[in-house]
Amino acid sequence: MKVADNPAPRPARRDVTVASVMAPTPRLRRIVLEGPDLADIRSDRFDDHVKLLVPGTDVRRSYTIRHVDAQARQLTLDCVLHGHGPAAQWAASVRTGDRVTVFGPKPRHEPVAFAETRILFGDTTALPAMARCLETADRHSGRVHVYVALDDAGERQRDLKPLRPGDTLAWLDPDGMDDLGWVRLRHAARRHDWSAADITAWIATETSVARRLRAELIEEEALSRTQIKAAGYWRVGEADGGMRL
Ligand SMILES: Cc1cc2nc3c(=O)[nH]c(=O)nc-3n(C[C@H](O)[C@H](O)[C@H](O)COP(=O)(O)OP(=O)(O)OC[C@H]3O[C@@H](n4cnc5c(N)ncnc54)[C@H](O)[C@@H]3O)c2cc1C
């Protein structure tokens, strides 16, 4: 059997302690993890994630790195309390001092900076990545436009604002239809001005919605597949239903 010369390094295992738990909005827990295992953590990309090993189980779930500070040995996750799965239940009951294990993030060698206009579409599970993209605007010269479909208007994060003139953030409140944000995100995409010369789209939401939105951008806005990075972050009725599309 041929062995690869440079096998991909495994995501690091990090055993950490819960330093604090906050509730920025009713259905969100902001969990700060800390410990010596975070001394070498590095995350450059706004959508980097770790795998959280739910304590007492062998269940692993993906969570975006909302903030990282290797010097302070801290890592922040924003976990949606959607009410069903083991990870959401852990987040709902976690307390300062609890122990937990995370793996990652995967080392990535793609450039962090970007110059093109980026249009980000997502739901509350994508908000940590989208917020990070807005907040790290000093790392890239490209414009950022964010559309977030909320499942509850109370989930608006009032302190989250674009830092740079020209970047935008649009909260799409629920309108009574149980469509997982599909109709609102599609309307936002149709209203958006796609005429910028260099433009890409990033999509992260429920898997069927992400798939439909990607198809919409290809068919209606004439984007090519290479202009779109799309992922399902969860899937209705399925445990661990996230997938790269
Ligand atoms: C790369 C990546 C990054 C992610 N980042 C984040 C993040 O920063 N914050 C975050 O909260 N989530 C994030 N997610 C989504 C999160 O991993 C999933 O929601 C995951 O399914 C939660 O695990 P669980 O154990 O709570 O539920 P599971 O056991 O996976 O699912 C149990 C049930 O809950 C339902 N369910 C799962 N998620 C949701 C939801 N959001 N809303 C309604 N129903 C749901 C499923 O359909 C299933 O029926 C990310 C996913 C990916 C792939």
TrEMBL record:
InterPro entries: FAD-bd_FR_type, FNR_nucleotide-bd, Riboflavin_synthase-like_b-brl, SIP_FAD-bd, SIP_fam, SIP_rossman_dom. Pfam families: FAD_binding_9 (PF08021), SIP (PF04954). This is FAD-binding 9 siderophore-interacting domain-containing protein. Residues 11-112 form the FAD-binding FR-type domain. The lineage of its organism: Bacteria, Pseudomonadati, Pseudomonadota, Alphaproteobacteria, Acetobacterales. It comes from the Bacteria. CDD domains: siderophore_interacting. PANTHER family: FERRIC REDUCTASE, NADPH-DEPENDENT, NADPH-DEPENDENT FERRIC-CHELATE REDUCTASE. Gene3D superfamilies: Nucleotide-binding domain of ferredoxin-NADP reductase (FNR) module, Translation factors. Belongs to the SIP oxidoreductase family. One of its GO terms (molecular function) is oxidoreductase activity. It comes from Tanticharoenia sakaeratensis NBRC 103193.
